[in-house]
Predict the 3D structure of the following.
Amino acid sequence: MITLAHLSDVHLAPLPPLRVRDLVNKRITGYINWKIKREHTLAGESLMKLVRHLRGQNPDFTAVTGDLMNLALDAEINTAHNWLETLGLPEQVCVSPGNHDAYIKGQLDKALVRWGDYMAGETIGPEAFPFVRRVGEVAIVSCSSAVPTAPWIAAGRIDVAQAARLRRCLQLLGEGGFFRVVLIHHPPNQELFKPRLGLWGAKLFRDAVAEAGAELVLHGHTHRSSIYAIPGPSGDVPVVGVAAAGAAQADTGGHDPARYNLFNIQRLGSGWQCTMREFGFQRLSTDIVLRLSMRIY
């Protein structure tokens, strides 16, 4: 049995010291948003407790679906790398980046270099995404929807080329008999699509999964817990969103308190079984509790 942990939207706090020149771009709107809203809804102490609890579960692998940073400052890139080291070794942890990790042009490239093996794996070409990590008979396929956008836009993008590479990865892994878990920051379902916040190219992503198949899709971005499905070649593929790991226990502006998910994946005969447990804070408690346990595959 393989145990896979999933957390997302870390939004490491507090912000590092800022210079005026740091804000002469899209970051000014992000900084205003931080001061008005996020500064009061993100809490480093809750994140530390959540990570300690997660580490205590001894997962075989941990997937982080993006938004480690807030404004993608150079100092935040370094802080995020140090935080990843507290989560585990690069062999046991990988990142699918989010829109805040690519807040302005060029910063995601810096993160790719600094975070190194946390954001790398097997690929089918020179492009960084998607990359594959294999853990026993489980294959984690990490996509990137992270692109710099205009102020007040938090959308992501999957283009034709990345969708084609994803399709090929899923085909090869399917032929190899792997349980395929696809990571992406933005939710891929049409129902959650909003032009300002959603995934541009969501249909390309869904078409790749519908044609090549996958057993599970994991995402973040919404700061809410969710479970739904998208079509696969032989039935629905579960899609699970996780609440923001960096959220405070209370006063979260309508979002869920900090949580993570733990998946137990095992082969049963010629098929698979996957059960999910959700751990996190309750709004009126400082304890991390088991909130949900269910079989999803």
